[in-house]
Structure formats: structure tokens, C-alpha cells
Design goal:
single chain, alpha+beta, seven-stranded antiparallel β-sheet, 18 helices, binds alpha-L-fucopyranose
Length: 762
Amino acid sequence: MLEVATVNERLWYKEPARKWVEALPIGSGKLGAMVFGGVHGERVQLNEDSLWYGGPVDRTNPDAGASLAEVRRLLFEGQLAEAERLAKTSLTSSPKHIGPYQTLGDLTIGFRGVDGAFTRYERELDLAEGVVGIGFEAGGIRYEREAIASFVDEVVAIRMTADQPGALTFDAYLDRRPFDGHSFGETNTIVMQGQNGEGGVTYAVAVRLVAEGGKAEVIGDNLCVNDADSVTLYIAAATSFRHDDPLAEARRVLGAAEAKGYEAIRRDHVADYGELFGRVSLAIGEEGTSDAERLPTNERLTAFKQGAADPNLLALFFQYGRYLLIASSRPGSLPANLQGVWNESHTPPWESDYHLNINLQMNYWPAELCNLAECHLPVFDLLDRLRRTGAATAKDMYGARGFAAHHATDLWAESKVVGTYMPAVIWPMGGAWMSLHLWEHYRYGRDKRFLLERAYPTLKDAALFLLDFLVEDGRGRLVTAPSLSPENTYRLPNGQTGRLCVGPSMDSQIAHALFTACLEAIGELALDAGEAEFRSELEHALARLPEPEIGRSGGLMEWSEDYEEVEPGHRHISHLFALHPGEQITPRHEPVLANAARATLEGRLANGGGHTGWSRAWIVEFWARLGDGDAALEHLIALLSKSVHPNLFGDHPPFQIDANFGGTAALAEMLLQSHRGEIALLPALPAAWPAGRVTGLRARGGCTVDLEWSGGKLAKAVVISDLGGDLLFAYGGQDITLSLEAGERAVLTAAAFQGAAESSRL
Ligand code: FUC
């Protein structure tokens, strides 16, 4: 351990973590842990992804269905305060709030005999292997510690060694202050178990000790080790969300782990994790040439904030985003929530839930593009459950077919209105937006069976809801109502302000994307005959959705009327959905609207926008889609300078993981984009990155792309097609179409595009 991985794939520090946002995260998808790396004591803060507070609740507001027409009437008549009052009482849920995702607790290890000063301390997270390593010397002894979270063996393992025999002496215990479960010891093992709130999951966490040399025993609910040569701790946890008997499951995992042994668990972990991580590499310029790159990560970040030229810190941040997605979202786990899987609190901000008005979507923007399609799957499991709960919501609240979900959801796939914050909550578009992730998974992987069996039924239900929910706006258009533009406020000419509205632009754009996806899916699956009626409903509605419009400020209109914005620097920039992640507006095909999108962006930024981590990441995406690499880089630098913790966790503030995932996706989109039928190579390359290379990015249409550039120009693109067919590539304003066989590899150079340009002039 502690060999020097490349500067782009290693976080490291010269001292133990003092704060949680200095600790290093490991995760197996379901299990998460934050490792502090202390010398005299170690804190391992633990998470299990299904440990949420409270059980599933029927939140139906009995007056919702009956009041819908009246809320709409009030809105159309401009009686905003009345509409919001009625909506707040009749459309919000009872009870109103969902329970939070919570910490599982801490494993606290107190070392005895490691007193006084320590030297040569190093703590690292090796992204290539997915291993945390800690090493130091004290009292003439070299101590080493490793921590991994294995997806293969569903266990967290901590391995402690020393270069002299008998050097390891410690006591360890579990707690969950102030909500400790019932804790006790059994053979070589300590356990804590409990239930998390009324109707909530029961849970068990257990730690097994395997020591070589010395004496190991359990005293009370403590693991006690005296004079061991080396020690392995295995940590397992489960809840009744997946297992009838969580303790039996934890014991099963521990038994299997102990039998397998640390070396084999580590080897399988590195192979399994490493295969996913190793699919993509990135280097900007010549790595290893700047002084800043050689600094510990926290000092490197400080130098970066002070203006050090260190583009490969951005590459490290990019790879860290991929690491975090692998560690918090694996097949069978829950999706990455607002904090991934890492949360030390019982009352985390926004319940550490799944926000569906930007945050969960942003978490998954890198999944396909950055070659981690498997990590997307937990979203589809959640969507399957949302589709079921959301069918009742569509029917009871809106008298509609299909399924609806609002702005946030939880462990139980709550689909009703969550909370009372009026700028956010009465927004029935969460299901529609999330469903588009199924479509994206298909577009990258082109698995027709997935499209037919998994994606299409949910896309269709999401669309059926909207077909029923849309109403005429009196100008021949079909609009959503009641709804809102997440989480902004507008002002009428008479001074009234409101959040609830008719036809916010984002909703029309999501509906446009969803209906278009359904129509294309029908085509792909050749379902025309069976789906004739649905298809015609889609086509008619699509034609009547409001188009993006330009307002008096020169920017895109956020609402269906050209209202005044109360907070012009607002963090949400929802009306640019059509630019990203949507693709209704591209600079190439809709230059006028793209210019208006740019004006919107400039307006937001001139008024203090981009102040939260995720908002800044979205801004980088917008610039990338506008093809402005320099502006994209400026905001990527701002993201790292202003919205990143010492362990490179994104900062809202406080910690929120969407900035990591959004930033990762945005950096990738500076180098490769693939929408509206073309694969754009280096579409937003900043002048400050004249040379570099990236391997393994994925493009829609089913292909993998490696890129190399120098002198600010494409040197070489290597394309491998999964299934064969025609792919259109764009670079420097020129197009080349390649017809490839399945598995075929092709090379494109700037000269080839130049040649295409010359032959088109002949
Ligand atoms: C939305 C955002 C907030 C925060 C929260 C989790 O409500 O407006 O900034 O990210 O989600």
C-alpha cells in the first residue's frame, strides 16, 4: 500500500481527519463508511442505505381531488394567494414530511500503547483500487491500516498490521448516539440492533474480530484486543427493508467473510471495483509536471483556490465523482441520495432524501456518459416502485391515468406531495423527469429488451399522467396546472407574487422530451399497430405544448407568461432544461434560442447565481452545451474553489453529493457530447487545456470513444461501436458519418474532418 498512484487517481493527506468532511469515504453501494484514520483512535462512521426513519405512510389528503378544479380556476384568474392557500391545505399531504435517511452509527476504536508523537503519517484513498490506506510510525513501530467496502462480499473490512509482533492493542464498540440500539457481544463479535421509528425498518450491525497473535475477547459489548500482530475487522449490516431477519443476514455475511479471509476479499474487491473504475482515464496536459500536483490533496485544493495552475486536480475531481458513484450505487442498492450513502446525522439537511426537481437526476448524469451504466440500475428499481405508488397519486389527486411523483421521495417511494415549502412541493413532474433516465439508459446501451420490458411501460405511464393532467390555457396550448418553476417566485404587474403557476417552461420542456421519447420508443420497438391510439394522443399533445419563448430581457421565459423574476440570481435554472439535460435547444439547430439561453445564464450569473455546488455544476453543463469551453472551465474552477470540502465532497453548503456527480458529468460533456443525432468531439475544449487525453467515454448510439488532443486540436478519436450501424461525428463544424460493424474500431483525426470539409466544397 501507499505506492504512488497517478496524481489523478489518489486523494492523500499528511494528517488524520479531524472533521467528517476530511474523512475518506468507502462504499459498496448498500454500505458506506467514513474512515478518519486516527492514530490513537479510529472512528469509522457507518451507513446502510435502507436505514431511514419511519415506515411507509398513507399521506392521502382526502380533499385533494375535489379541490383541484378550484385551484386551477383561481390560478387562471390570477388569484395567486387564494390558489396557494387552497393548494397548501388541500394538496399537501397528511402527515406532511418524510422521515430522514440516518446514520447507522459509529465503530469507535481506542488504541492503547500508541502514545505520544507519531511520524511519517500518510492517509490515502486510491481510486484505482478503491482502497483507503493509513500508515504512520509511533514508538519506533510502523503501523498500517486498510479499509475497503466490498460489493462482492457485502462487507466493510478493516485490516491492521504493524512491523513488529504484538503491537496492536485496542478496544472497540458500536454506538448510535443518542439513539443507540440494543448492543451485546457474542463470539468474537459485537452487535447493535434496533428499530428506526414507528413502522420503520429494524436493523442490525455486527463487527467480527479476527486477530493473529495476542489475545482477543469480547467484554460486554466491546471487542478487546491485546498484543496482536495483525487484526481484521469485518463489518456487516442489514435492515428489514431487504431481510426478514437483519441480524441473521449480518451473521451470515460475517461468517462468509471470515471464511474467505481478507486477502481474497481484497483481491475480489479490487478486481470488481477496478473493472468499473478502470474503464475511463483522463489526463489534462502533462500530468506530474506541476508542483501543486505533488501536494497532499487538502493543500493542493488550497493552492488551487489561490490560483495555482493544476488542471489535473479537475481530472482527480472527475475520477472521484466516478468513484463515488460506484461506491454509492450498485445493482441491488438504493440510488445515491443527497449524500450518496454517507451521512453522519440523524437529522440531515433535506432529510438526505431523493430530490426529484434536479438533485437525483444530477447524481446520475455521469452514469452512462462516464461508462458506469450498471450504476444507473438502482434508479430504475426505485422508479418501478414509484410507478406503483404514483399510480394512486395520479388517480387520487389528479383523476389521471399513469403515475405521478412530486419533488421528493424516500425509501418507500413516496409519490405524494412532500413537505410544505411552497416554492418546491406542488410540482407533479418528478416522475416524468426521472422516467427519462430509462430512455437515456436505452440510448447509450441500445438494449431493446430493456426498452420493451423495463423502460417503455414506465415511460408510457409517465406520459399518460401528463396527457390527462395537461389543461388548455385559453390560447390553444396545453399546459401543466397547478405547478411551479422549481423553486422560483414570480411577480405579476400588480405586485402580487406567486410560486404556483400555469405552464412553467420546464414542465413543457419535460413533457416535450417525454412525449418525444415515447414516440421514438414506439418506433424502435415497432409497436405502431398496438399503440396507435396512444401514439396519436402523444402527437396531438406534442403539437400543442408551448414552445420555448424569448422574453423582454432577451432570455428564455421561465414561465408561460413573461413574468418578472423575484430572485434573478436563483440557483435553479429550470427553464434551461431544454439545453441540458434536454436537447430541444442546440446552438447548431436553434441558434436564436441558444443565444437566449446564454442570455438567461448571463442574467443569472450577473445576479449572484451559481452559489450552491449543484447549481454551479449545472452552469458548467450549460456552457458545455453552448460550446463555450472557456466559460465552462471558469465555472468548473469556481466549483472546486468555492464548493468542495477537503475530502473533495461537494458543498451545497453543507455537503451535498450532486456537485460531485454534476461536475463529473459536466467535465465529460466538455470533451464529448452525443445528442440530436450527432457525436460531438471536443465540443467545449477550453483554450487552457491545449493537450490531453480521455479514454472510455460513452456516446448515445452505443459506442465508446477515446480522445487525444494537442495544440488545442483533435489528434485522434478512437471509436468502438457496440452493435454496429451509422454514427455521425462532428468536429470543428464538420461532420463525418461512419458505418461500422458490431465491435468495429475506427480512428478519426482532425485531418479526416478537414478532408470531409474539402470534399464537400468540391
Ligand atoms: C432543492 C434545492 C436546494 C437543495 C435541495 C436538496 O430544493 O433548491 O438548493 O439542493 O433541493
